[in-house]
Amino acid sequence: MFKFEFQQVLDFRKNVEERRLIEHSDQQKEVKKERLALAQLRKKKTQLTAQFLRIQEEGMQASDAAHYVSYIQHVNEKERLQQEAVVKAEAVLEEKKAALLEAVKKRKAMERLREKRLAEHRSAQAAKERRNLDEFGIRSFQRKTGNEETDHSL
After folding, report:
1. Cβ neighbour number for residue 108 with a 10 Å cutoff
2. d(Cα 93, Cα 91) in Å, to the nearest integer?
3. 104: nearest Cα among 84, 75, 96
4. Distance (Å, rounded) from C-alpha 94 to C-alpha 25?
5. How confident is the model over 84-135, as pLDDT tens digits?
6. For the residues of the chain, what is the DSSP string, one character each?
7. What is the pTM of this model?
């Protein structure tokens, strides 16, 4: 029966990889959320600008125009901050991706070692079985011939 001496290490690395995968997935969702918020702000800014231009053509008081401009500037600032949030979230996502790839690499290295050791074990078992069959064949031959000296000549 094959027993991999580093099975606990392999299991640990699998667990680390699973955690990194979950963290990466969660961060992907975070980036998506931040991008959606940015898109909504941009849409709002576009609508406000279009509305401001339409109302301006109809004629508006200077105080109303000042309020619109002030609000559009506020939305511009929120958009800038949201763009920074997107960039930060994407940077964290890249870090999570690198950590995930490193965890996959470590797990695969242990799995390759396990496969190598399993192949060595199977080869040793096959050699042992061949020796046993050879020994069985020699003993059968000796019994049939009644010649015990052939044991030493082979």
Report:
1. 12
2. 5
3. 96
4. 12
5. 999 999 999 999 999 999 999 999 999 999 999 999 999 999 999 999 888 9
6. ----TTHHHHHHHHHHHHHHHHHHHHHHHHHHHHHHHHHHHHHHHHHHHHHHHHHHHH---HHHHHHHHHHHHHHHHHHHHHHHHHHHHHHHHHHHHHHHHHHHHHHHHHHHHHHHHHHHHHHHHHHHHHHHHHHHHHHHHHHHHT-TTHHHH-
7. 0.74
